[in-house]
Amino acid sequence: MTAAQWKQFNFFDRQQSFDPSDKTKSPAVFEKPDISVMTSGRGQIALADSTGLVYVCDRSFKTHSFLAYKDGRVTHLKQLKQKNILITEEDGGTPVAKFWDMDSVKYGDSETITPTCIRSIKIQHGAKPYPVTTIAVLENMSQMAIGLASGAVIHIRGDLSKDRTIKQKVIYEGEEPITGLGFREQTKSTILFIVTTSSIMSYNTTASKPTVTTLDEQGCGLGCAVMSDSQEMVVGRDEAIYFYDSTGRGQCFAYDTPKSSMTWFKSNCLVIVSPPVTTSTQLSSASRSSLPFSPKRNSALSELTKVTIFDTTNKFIAFLGTFVGGIRGVFCEWNSVWIVGTDGKIYHLDEKDTPTKLEILFKLNLYVLAINLAHSQKYDDASIAEIFKKYADHLYSKGDYDGAIDQYIRTIGELEPSYVIRKFLDAQRIYNLTNYLQELHSQGLANADHTTLLLNCYTKLKDVSRLDHFLKTDADLNFDLETAISVCRQAGYYEHAVYLAEKFQEHDLYLDIVIEDMREYDKALAYIRKLSPYEADKSLQKYSKTLLTHLPDQTTEILVELCTGTLSARNTDDQQSPTPSAKNNTSALQTLSILPFATANESASIRSDSSGTNRDTSIDANEKQQHKGSLKYSPPSARIFMPAFVERPNYLVVLLESVYEKRWAHLASGNDKNNNDTASIRSYSTREDKTIHQPNGTSTTGPTLSHQEKEERKAIWNTLLELYLMDEQPFPLSSESSTGSREELSDEERQKRRKNFRVKALALLKDQAVDYDTNQALVLCQLKQFDEGIVYLYEKTGMYSDIVQFWIDKEETDRVIEAVRKYGPKDSSLYPMVLTYFSSNAEVLSKSTPELLSVLNHIDSQDLLPPIQVVQALARSDVASISLIKRYIGKKIEHEREELSQNEELIASYREETEKRRQEIDELQTSARIFQVQKCTGCDGMLDLPAVHFLCRHSYHQRCLGDNDRECPQCAIQHRMISEIRRTQEANADRHDIFFDQLDNEEDGFSVIADYFSKNTMTFAKLID
């Protein structure tokens, strides 16, 4: 492929550079005829001549020079990129390579500098020296390769940045001269490319036994091998350009033109210089006349050199120009390509910016090339989408609607969809619009309006097959599901709406369609049974009242299963809708008004319910552990369904009884298994009404209930108690019609029902497992005049006096007698009350005289009341006579006399002992004591001096006492015990809590106080503020 066959553009601006001091001439350094080599890098240009001088230029062509070699010609220059190191090579016999540190420079006069030479290496190979053709150096300066004209490659390894020992090794010897070298650094190895005129090879310098591997049997000329920025060896031959990596030949670009040198520019451009050609053979007379030279000038200026810049990424020629005469060198610096001619002129090619390039391509309608160029320049998605938009607009203006919609599809995500939709609203372009909307949905970027528009396209075109394909065929549909269902409902496609709702688990929408539109209530209940408990709970909360109106038995049955934890949960996970459902679709069809086929009905707002968007079916793992056995989830509270039973209390009774029985009845039976008075709700059930079938199996809970479950059970308990005590006319389960009409019950049936419910109510009250509010239950029992319940609650709360007073108020003497017998031992305050009641009138007294005497005997035997209180209780009326209590009073007086006599005798003995102790103390304090003991109390031997005598009349040898001669060993134990008791009394004197605890726990508090006084403890007590 020749240059004419590639797309050619002028993406570089060509300008000639002049000397800053003389704008008519080129910089002086470039006009030197003996410049032999040049290079660039790190913001500077380096040139060398045949005398050994090296010139360094900056951006303003200010030049400094230094002498690299005294008697030699510099043939190679290399500027490292990572370090400011300049490498020179001299070919004046034995080649010598020097490394110059350009950051360590000493300035002489205005034009000379002296950089530091950090290393000098003499290249040795055989007795006869050969010229160096090419060099390559690693950027870290650890390896260097030198190619010779003899075909040998010398590899130098070591720290080239310091004057240390290095190793030179000939790694290749061939017959053809070396035309190119280049290092490729890989993760674990370093590859050296070797190019000759006849072959291309690679050499792994880091291998343990490195060998030369041939990559291609064809080579290239000198100067036609260069390393790219991606560390690939780029080889130029007359027919093409080839890329090589460590594995072999890579991509190839056919470019059939002679090549004399190649230079890599930036990341993707290759500067190709062709050999000069004479103008007479290559140009027409018209072309020759336009060139800026005279035929009378020398032959060197009658030649033209072609320079081509090839974009290897986008595969086009970015610049093609000719230069008069030969080209001495090409280098790239300051983001430009610099060309130095043999006539001393220097040109720089400045690359146009990318927006300018794109504008050129747009004018030529080369949008594909513009897109590739934008990608190579790392344009963002928005910028690339803008190019796609221009391309699509171009195709649309040409009438290529299919091609245009393909390009518009590529702008999805960046271009506003309404821009495209407006262009394709014509009925003839609906097919293209449908393709665009489908792709918009597949990428998940469609909103409710787009879904509405697409579905209406299908429905208006009556393309049911494509509608089915869109809704039913694809496994993952990306659209606003709720809007799609709403549109199908509005258009009358109930089958599609139900299909979508069921497929994507839009339970709320499914039930809404089935119940509100189709009115298939049995189908709705069947669907609810298939839902997970969480979804079933949410659905029944919304539709339970409607379902109870039409199917009360089946609805109550499923509610029982749900609230008792026996509703089977599905094993499959809910399938999520590909995109979130819209919360408000009132504007979903607004865009239909611009369609040519839109109607008023279809422009109406779409009704949607956001409650169907929540599909969180997770159940708290902690709540799951609260139920075992058949409970696979935490049952919902039955309280949330109570409002639905407002007109059907008997069905509510069934629900609450079932929930209570299955979830907590076993706790009551376990707690009250020894209580014969307590019965479960079901054990009292004698109702003959229709019973709803419950699933088999029992449910058990753990030994303890959470606070939430306790509150739930308490609420159900209170509601059941209210329902049992309710006297209103109920809805009979067996005779109720679907319209809610009542059939009156007979008085006998009402009494039977009342009795049955009262039995159940008492069973509830006796359920010890429920920590219900006793006051609330008591108020309810009092309002409904439930005597058994009132008495039980009084007994449960220990209000025994209220029980007795309750029966007294009802003047039921037998119940009063029974109550005092049962609760009198627990509460002595009942006796004055019953004594007053028994003596209230003659009729009661005559009926209860034996019981009154029995009460008096019990009071006397247990000493429950003082006699004065008994007399006061009987004296409140004139019915009781003194003969009733004559015996009781006599016994009490006799008992008091005996107790008084015993106390007097005890007091006399205490006084006598106290007087004796006082005399002994006085004798010890006032009289001398004579010791006549002859034996030692300790050893029982004859007492001799020295001896020790104690006032307790005990005597000891001094040797028997040892060091402890201050107290009697025999009496010390008793003395210490008395001292400890006294210290304890002193300590307890401040422990008021111990005193009050004893006072509360003892029946006779006065005896406790007397005991404290007797032990003299009160003497040590401190006053309490």
TrEMBL record:
<dbReference type="InterPro" id="IPR024763">
    <property type="entry name" value="VPS11_C"/>
</dbReference>
<dbReference type="GO" id="GO:0008270">
    <property type="term" value="F:zinc ion binding"/>
</dbReference>
<keyword id="KW-0863">Zinc-finger</keyword>
<keyword id="KW-0862">Zinc</keyword>
<keyword id="KW-0472">Membrane</keyword>
<feature type="compositionally biased region" description="Basic and acidic residues">
    <location>
        <begin position="617"/>
        <end position="626"/>
    </location>
</feature>
<feature type="repeat" description="CHCR">
    <location>
        <begin position="408"/>
        <end position="556"/>
    </location>
</feature>
<dbReference type="InterPro" id="IPR016024">
    <property type="entry name" value="ARM-type_fold"/>
</dbReference>
<feature type="coiled-coil region">
    <location>
        <begin position="893"/>
        <end position="927"/>
    </location>
</feature>
<dbReference type="GO" id="GO:0030897">
    <property type="term" value="C:HOPS complex"/>
</dbReference>
<keyword id="KW-0479">Metal-binding</keyword>
<feature type="compositionally biased region" description="Basic and acidic residues">
    <location>
        <begin position="741"/>
        <end position="751"/>
    </location>
</feature>
<keyword id="KW-0813">Transport</keyword>
<dbReference type="InterPro" id="IPR016528">
    <property type="entry name" value="VPS11"/>
</dbReference>
<keyword id="KW-0833">Ubl conjugation pathway</keyword>
<feature type="domain" description="RING-type">
    <location>
        <begin position="936"/>
        <end position="971"/>
    </location>
</feature>
<keyword id="KW-0926">Vacuole</keyword>
<protein>
    <recommendedName>
        <fullName>E3 ubiquitin-protein ligase PEP5</fullName>
        <ecNumber>2.3.2.27</ecNumber>
    </recommendedName>
</protein>
<dbReference type="Pfam" id="PF12451">
    <property type="entry name" value="VPS11_C"/>
</dbReference>
<comment type="similarity">
    <text>Belongs to the VPS11 family.</text>
</comment>
<dbReference type="GO" id="GO:0048284">
    <property type="term" value="P:organelle fusion"/>
</dbReference>
<dbReference type="GO" id="GO:0033263">
    <property type="term" value="C:CORVET complex"/>
</dbReference>
<dbReference type="GO" id="GO:0006904">
    <property type="term" value="P:vesicle docking involved in exocytosis"/>
</dbReference>
<dbReference type="GO" id="GO:0007032">
    <property type="term" value="P:endosome organization"/>
</dbReference>
<dbReference type="InterPro" id="IPR057308">
    <property type="entry name" value="CHCR_PEP5_VPS11"/>
</dbReference>
<dbReference type="GO" id="GO:0007033">
    <property type="term" value="P:vacuole organization"/>
</dbReference>
<dbReference type="GO" id="GO:0030674">
    <property type="term" value="F:protein-macromolecule adaptor activity"/>
</dbReference>
<dbReference type="GO" id="GO:0061630">
    <property type="term" value="F:ubiquitin protein ligase activity"/>
</dbReference>
<keyword id="KW-0175">Coiled coil</keyword>
<keyword id="KW-0653">Protein transport</keyword>
<dbReference type="Pfam" id="PF23341">
    <property type="entry name" value="PEP5_VPS11_N"/>
</dbReference>
<feature type="region of interest" description="Disordered">
    <location>
        <begin position="603"/>
        <end position="633"/>
    </location>
</feature>
<feature type="compositionally biased region" description="Polar residues">
    <location>
        <begin position="603"/>
        <end position="616"/>
    </location>
</feature>
<dbReference type="Pfam" id="PF17122">
    <property type="entry name" value="zf-C3H2C3"/>
</dbReference>
<dbReference type="InterPro" id="IPR011990">
    <property type="entry name" value="TPR-like_helical_dom_sf"/>
</dbReference>
<keyword id="KW-0808">Transferase</keyword>
<dbReference type="InterPro" id="IPR000547">
    <property type="entry name" value="Clathrin_H-chain/VPS_repeat"/>
</dbReference>
<dbReference type="InterPro" id="IPR001841">
    <property type="entry name" value="Znf_RING"/>
</dbReference>
<feature type="compositionally biased region" description="Polar residues">
    <location>
        <begin position="693"/>
        <end position="706"/>
    </location>
</feature>
<comment type="subunit">
    <text>Component of the homotypic vacuole fusion and vacuole protein sorting (HOPS) complex. Component of the class C core vacuole/endosome tethering (CORVET) complex.</text>
</comment>
<feature type="region of interest" description="Disordered">
    <location>
        <begin position="731"/>
        <end position="751"/>
    </location>
</feature>
<dbReference type="GO" id="GO:0000329">
    <property type="term" value="C:fungal-type vacuole membrane"/>
</dbReference>
